[in-house]
Amino acid sequence: MRSIITLDEFIIQKQKDFPFATGELSGLLRDIGLACKIISREVNKAGLADISGQAGIENSSGEEVQKLDVMADNLLISCLQNSGECCGIASEENTTFVPIKKSENAKYVVLFDPLDGSSNIDVNISIGTIFAIYRRVSDDGECQLEDFLQDGVEQVASGYVVYGSSTMLVYTTGKGVNGFTLDPSIGEFCLSHPDIRIPKEGKIYAINQSAYHKFDTGTKQFIDECMENGCNFRYVGSMVADVHRTLIRGGIFIYPSTTSSPNGKLRLLYECNPLSFIVEQAGGHSTNGRERIMELEATELHQRTPIYMGSPDMVKRVEEICGEMMKERS
Ligand code: AHM
Ligand code: MG
């Protein structure tokens, strides 16, 4: 029988890669893993309990909040409050960050999108959780906004959990990317995808093509080329699921600037930076067309950015097109 390595065992083994590690980051990752196991359990019975549908409130971006969004948000917050390793959290669902008083001197802050792909919740299509961990930059005491508004390159760890045909957790601490599948019979995430590498070239593009008429010229040209080159089009509409497929199969995931939303839809801190860290660690690229996503300056918690991420050859082609467009304009 193949020997099993659980997420907790793996995290402890990997702690040895960091000579001065104190175990705090490992503890935090394990606590996030635990919260996501509970979210997975709740998501799996969504149709049975009275936990699907809209919660009747809007989030800070004015979008309808689903009951499961609220449940996932509360679960992550309470796991992180009990963790002792985290001095504050910021969530896509909350207007501002939440300091954690009982561990206010802890070293780390966590930012997350508790349940990404909200519009897919009620129709049994994959959704996910995304998280990013940063070392605080403020002095001890209550955490500050500056702890959360850090460039993506400062991430200490990031990851996602996809609640799909199986539940998988994928994370990086800056030394490659590893994936774990939840074995429901033992309630453990088990190493199933060691050292994930994204294919250099891809043949799949993912974008909400129904908005083609609103895309900028560069994005339109890239999409036209994809179609001419016989690429396949796939779009789940849950970023976690689309990026997960891109990571494993290769290709590109795009949420561009549109005439109605010049900054796109996706949030830099909760979605784009953590998934860019994963994609880059797996050998891929992630850009807004001009700059690397992880080097963008964060000025507000709910900042949005256009994004093109995935196989390096495809993302490079986007950058070439955007560069040519900029030259023509100047
Ligand atoms: P959410 O965080 O409210 O779920 O919104 C983000 C989701 C992403 O998962 C997905 O890529 C995108 O919205 C889909 O948007 P659209 O319906 O405009 O294609
Ligand atoms: Mg989201």
Features:
Fructose-1,6-Bisphosphatase, Chain A, domain 1; binds magnesium ion; five-stranded mixed sheet; binds 2,5-anhydro-1,6-di-O-phosphono-D-mannitol; alpha+beta; 32% helix; 330 residues; D-Maltodextrin-Binding Protein, domain 2; globular; 2 domains; eight-stranded mixed sheet
Strand order of the largest sheet: 4-3-5-6-7-8-9-10
Hetero groups: 2,5-anhydro-1,6-di-O-phosphono-D-mannitol, magnesium ion
Calculate the mean pLDDT score and round it. 92
Supply the number of structural domains.
2
Discrete helix count: 8
State the CATH architecture of the largest domain: 2-Layer Sandwich
> Oligomerization state of this entry?
single chain
List the helices and strands and how they pair.
Layout lengths: L6 H9 L8 H21 L9 E5 L5 E3 H17 L2 E6 L6 E2 L8 E9 L10 E9 L9 H4 L6 E9 L3 E6 L4 E7 L4 E6 L10 E3 L10 H12 L3 E2 L5 H11 L2 E4 L12 H14 L3 E3 L19 E4 L1 H18 L1
Parallel strand pairs: 3-5, 11-12, 11-13
Antiparallel strand pairs: 1-2, 3-4, 5-6, 6-7, 7-8, 8-9, 9-10, 13-15, 14-15
Helix pairs in contact: 1-2, 2-3, 5-8
Structure notes:
The chain has 330 residues and is an alpha+beta fold. It has 2 domains: 7-193, Fructose-1,6-Bisphosphatase, subunit A, domain 1 (Fructose-1,6-Bisphosphatase, Chain A, domain 1, 2-Layer Sandwich); 204-329, D-Maltodextrin-Binding Protein, domain 2, CATH 3.40.190.80. 32% of the residues lie in helices and 24% in strands. The protein contains 8 helices and 15 strands. The protein has helices at 7-15, 24-44, 67-83, 145-148, 217-228, 239-249, 268-281, 312-329, and strands at residues 54-58, 64-66, 86-91, 98-99, 108-116, 127-135, 155-163, 167-172, 177-183, 188-193, 204-206, 232-233, 252-255, 285-287, 307-310. It has an 8-stranded mixed beta sheet with strand order 4-3-5-6-7-8-9-10, sandwiched between helices. A 5-stranded mixed beta sheet has the order 12-11-13-15-14, sandwiched between helices. Strand 7 (155-163) and strand 8 (167-172) form a beta hairpin. Helix 5 (217-228) packs across helix 8. It is globular and about 55 Å long. The model has no long low-confidence stretch (mean pLDDT 92). 2,5-anhydro-1,6-di-O-phosphono-D-mannitol (AHM) binds next to strand 5.
